[in-house]
Amino acid sequence: METPLLIFNENGIYCQEADVYLDPWHPVDRAIITHGHADHSRYGNKEYITHKNNVPIIKHRLGDILVHGKEYNEKFVVNNVTFSLHPAGHIIGSSQVRVEHKGEVWVFSGDYKLEDDGISTPFEPVKCHTFITECTFGIPPFKWMPQGEVFKDINQWWANNREEGKTSVLFGYSLGKAQRLLKYLDTSIGEIYTHGAIENMTEVLRNQAQFPPTTLITRDTKKKDLLGNIVLAPPSAHGSTWIRKMVPFVTASASGWMAFRGARRRRAIDKGFVLSDHCDWEELLTAIKSTGAEKIIATHGYTEIFSRYLRAQGYDARTEETQFEGEVDEVHIEKKEKEEL
Amino acid sequence: MKLFADLIRDLDSTNKTTSKVAALVEYFIAAPDKDKVWAIAILSHRRPPRPVNTTLIRSWAAELAAIPLWLFEESYHIVGDLAETIALVIPSSQNKSDNSLFQFVEEIILLKSWPDKEKKEYLIENWTNLSYYERFVFTKLITGSFRIGISQKLMTRALSKATGIEEDLLAYRLMGNWDPSTTSFHNLIIKQRESDFISKPYPFYLAYPLEGEVEDLGSVSDWFVEHKWDGIRAQIIVRDQEVFVWSRGEELVTDKYPEFHSLPGIVPDGTVMDGEILAFSNGAIGSFNDLQTRIGRKTISTNLLKKTPVVLKVYDLLEWKGEDIRKLPLMDRRQLLERLLTLERMNELPIHLSETSQLCNWEEVAAERSKAREYRSEGLMIKNKNSPYRVGRKKGDWWKWKVDPLSIDAVLTYAMRGHGRRTNLFTDYTFALWDKDAEELVTFAKAYSGLTDAEFRKVDAWIKRNTLERFGPVRSVTPQLVFEIAFEGVALSKRHKSGVATRFPRIVRWRQDKKVDEANSLEDLKMMISIPQSQHE
User: Fold this and answer.
1) Chain A within 8 Å of B428 (Cβ-Cβ)?
2) What are the angstrom distances between the C-alpha of B58 and each of A310, B124, B528?
3) Which CATH number, 3.40.50.20, 3.60.15.10, 3.20.20.150, 3.30.200.20, labels domain A7-142+277-340?
4) Which of A21, A192, B19, B255 has the least C-beta neighbours within 10 A?
5) Residue B254: Cβ within 10 Å count
């Protein structure tokens, strides 16, 4: 039997024909990277290929690495295999990877969402034979509201807290979510303060998108400076001594997991805003349909449930274990976050 | 409905008790009286009888969401709450219903007698037209109890703030068997009554676990020491020639215990006793396991009544000759209690005095405690002789000094996702012990508590990587992790595969230092079963 165009081995998703890995989890010679989150772009590869907007992000995270930036839709050939990157709409610089060899086309989605967040280049479906998809939120209870409504709620929450003389602390992952929140906070309500991890990452991205001004919280920041204002912090800051200084405060988290009442209560967060940089259930189904693919490989998330559903819909669907695998929870995000800090 | 749904949303939007109370106060001020009665009923777990069985509810919800039933079930296992799952999978509507909470509840009560087809139409119409929180609340009313992190105490506090009526008085008025569909807010909460209902119990006084050293309590002569009986805490009321038995869950359980039906006529009217219902046969106290056969049965067969009779171990008297004597010092109440037990024909009744131990110093008290298991007690109760009978859990006068739990090292074999705040995490575990002869693991207990959130997350991640098989929400895992499981008691049981039942099993710690073959055996567990001394009263 012929080796498939992409296989899943101990190091990552591997194209044997080109000798290239996609988002490898162990160090390899040549890696194509979908986006800058820690479980997709790891240390130690000899050569990185990624979208040009992701270059400053992974350089910030991984230091002095050998990296080539590509444009979306720019074709490049490695050992007779044609690769190109396409917008995934997940975070700034995130891509899907299209792999073509002898007329056969595979697409690896990385992480993606369909809604245009106004910051990252919106997702574009790519026709393919085999589509490798995440399904972090691949069950029907996950259904996102348009982000405009969510931000209306977030700004309303901030305004109410300000009225009660409290500091609003909003948790979001420092790469991606934090900037998306920042972009739509209503600066007429008050000032925006940031945790170091978020401040630094935002600084890296300021020449790629417009963000309101922020103030980094330092040792010298006074409690009264924060009152009525909003603090953007990574989830790992929850319950830390850093945050206890801000009393009286109200906490909220912005994440897809906040759709579950239990997830919020477990983390002892006051308010949850359902806002995700991943697809919800319907978006996943829409995206898969728009690729025209017949073969679907589900990687991380509710893979078994999701692929079982796809099979019932007539797809040739299966699951593959990856290191982004596991029923990704906020625990996972916290882990990512810690690596980030 | 909007007001009540908004209340639930507000309670959901904060993790702070003060904000929760504030939201409740606001609701109790703004809501119409008829709604308030139902809100109080619902928050104190008095929901209308379930009008539709959940199998039908699930299939209708899956149909409306246009997903296969198995996918709905999988989603439910992950979300961990049926009403929440339904509220999430059904497409959202921007509509809001003008119907008030009580109108919905009245409809839901009537719904029970409708044919399935009309039930379905009713549910689908409301699911389609209600907003997310309204749909969640509506479905909760139909499917189950409202566990949303609001204790009765918290609700009573809010009600007190909203009405200006004392908390203790409200706690008393809210006890017992009132029917929200026939009780008005005024009659329930506001109206002052002379006699109130004759069935009304007093709020139970609950003890705190002993803090620090027992010697710190001062002179032993200031305290009554008695065994802490392991049964069902109960108040037995005799008024107007009628008897009422209340369990601590404020449940009227008179019908379940025919043993006490002969009290009127012997126990004088205007008597309220506090004690523990225990299984008792052949002159000895039975195990909680024996008593378990009586709990949860609506009808008690003569056979069962003969096999597992019960008694009341009585230790306090709250009302005597129709007078509330809770403010009297405990020694005076006990004196009256002892006098009650000497009344004519009292010895015919299944009422036994919980004896106080005559002990001279704390060493003797400690020695008495170490004999608890022989007496089938959980340890000791230490009560100040001058204490009044207080309301709720209060520190200072009544202490419980339990025996140290038994414990055993067991192997994690199955895991299930938790509910509530543990939704989506594998936190409900089944444990097994070695059967030495068969060289296999035998399930012996389930436990849900005892690990920290961080440990639960670690074990959860391990479970996901080490799953062997899935059975719906349950997973079997590689037998590898060892945990120390503590429990209050152990007894032989025919209902359990292992042949033994443990009482209150919980996780003490994760024994990362132990390998799976170092876990204990079933024989080790059976060695812990103690045979109680026969007691003649």
Assistant:
1) no
2) 22, 12, 44
3) 3.60.15.10
4) B255
5) 16
B1-10 pLDDT, tens per residue?
889 999 999 9
Q: C-alpha distances in angstroms, B206 versus B153, B232, B327, B367, B389?
A: 14, 13, 16, 24, 9
ipTM, 2 decimals?
Answer: 0.91
Question: Which tokens go with B126?
Answer: 């409301």
Subunit contact B71:A326, Cβ cutoff 8 A: no
Taking an 8 Å cut-off on Cβ atoms, the answer to whether B421 and A266 are in contact is: yes
CATH topology of domain A147-273: Rossmann fold (3.40.50)
CATH number assigned to the domain covering B2-143? 1.10.3260.10
Q: Which of residues 291-330 of A touch B (CB under 8 A)?
A: 302, 305, 308-309, 312, 326-327, 329
Give tens-digit pLDDT for B45-83: 777 888 999 999 999 999 999 999 999 999 998 888 899
Superfamily in which the B406-526 domain is placed by CATH: Nucleic acid-binding proteins (2.40.50.140)
The CA-CA-CA angle for residues B316, B388, B390, to 5°, reads 85
Beta bridge partners of A194: A216, A232
Of B70, B79, B464, the CB nearest to A141: B79
Domain locations along chain A: 7-142+277-340, 147-273
- B108: phi then psi, degrees, rounded to nearest 5: -65, -35
Residue given tokens 């509840």 in the structure block: B105
Residue type, A330: E
Give dist(CA B129, CA B52) in Å, integer: 19
- Domain range annotation of chain B: 2-143, 205-402, 406-526
Structure confidence by residue, pLDDT tens digits, A171-197: 999 999 999 999 999 999 999 999 999
- CA–CA separation, B362 vs B369, rounded Å? 10
B80 burial class (0-12, 13-18, 19+ CB within 10 angstroms)?
A: buried
Q: What is the pLDDT of residues B244-263, one digit of tens each?
A: 898 886 677 888 899 999 99
With an 8 Å Cβ cutoff, are B67 and A260 in contact? no
Does domain B205-402 fall under CATH 3.30.70.120? My reply is: no
- Chain A residues with CB under 8 Å of B15 CB are 251, 265, 268-270
Å between A228 CA and nearest CA of chain B: 17
- Where are the extended beta strands (E) located within B455-512? 467-471, 474-477, 482-487, 489-492, 500-503, 506-510
Asked if A31 and A44 touch (Cβ cutoff 8 Å), the reply is no
Pairwise CA distance, residues B106 & B37, whole Å: 12
